[in-house]
Amino acid sequence: MDLIPNPDSPHSDNSGGHSSPQQFASSSSSTGTSTGGSSSSPSLSRYESQKRRDWNTFGQYLKNHRPPLSLARCSDAHVLEFLRYLDQFGKTKVHTQMCPFFGHPSPPAPCPCPLRQAWGSLDALVGRLRAAYEENGGKPESNPFGAPAVRLYLREVRDLQSKARGVSYEKKKRKKPQQDRRHPPLPPAAT
To answer: Which residues belong to any copy of the ALOG domain (predicted)?
Structure first.
């Protein structure tokens, strides 16, 4: 089975590979689409639009790979190669251990440390590509984006960036909505 971006899928934009890695290297730079739609075609959510761009760009990456790869032959090693390739388009300063600013969240001066993709951007990208793979005919059990090696790589990137940048990537706990204890709820209005 050869999985390629399907032009009839709602997750393909028929752009002919006009997306560049810079367009999806940072998901925060994407523009949203309106949720109010025209009657001819429904507009996609920001997430769906980004997922489509990511999927098409990954497909273009596979075409440009030497030798060219079909998605069916794509493995977790190719996904890792793609994620490392994206680092050249990163905007997040990741200090090396030799840097005097290693572990400082707000360094007081510039340094020559490399720019990388932020862990959160990579994590979100892998999540979107994992979903797009299955939506375009891939089987969940053979999804290279969900492979243990990819999860391990993301964990290593998170830990390295956390130490290098002096920031914590702890999961945020959701606060339970609490009723205001100072004022009891008002009784329903009598009519």
So the answer is: 46-173
Strand locations in the chain, DSSP E? Answer: 92-93, 115-116
Neighbours of 134 (CB within 10 A): 15
What's the average model confidence in pLDDT over 34-55? 76
Distance CA 120, CA 128 (A): 12
Q: What is the mean pLDDT of the chain?
A: 78
Q: Is the pTM of this model over 0.70?
A: no
48: nearest Cα among 119, 135, 123: 135
Identify the band that residue 20 occupies on the pLDDT scale cut at 50, 70 and 90: very low
Strands (E) across 31-153 are located at: 92-93, 115-116
A 10 A CB-CB count for 78 gives 17
Look at the alpha carbons of 124, 130, 131, 136 in this order and tell me if their dihedral is positive or negative.
Answer: positive
69-77: average pLDDT: 90
What does the pLDDT read at residue 126?
A: 97
Number of Cα atoms under 13 Å in the Cβ half of residue 54: 30
Contact 124, 56 (CB under 8 A): no
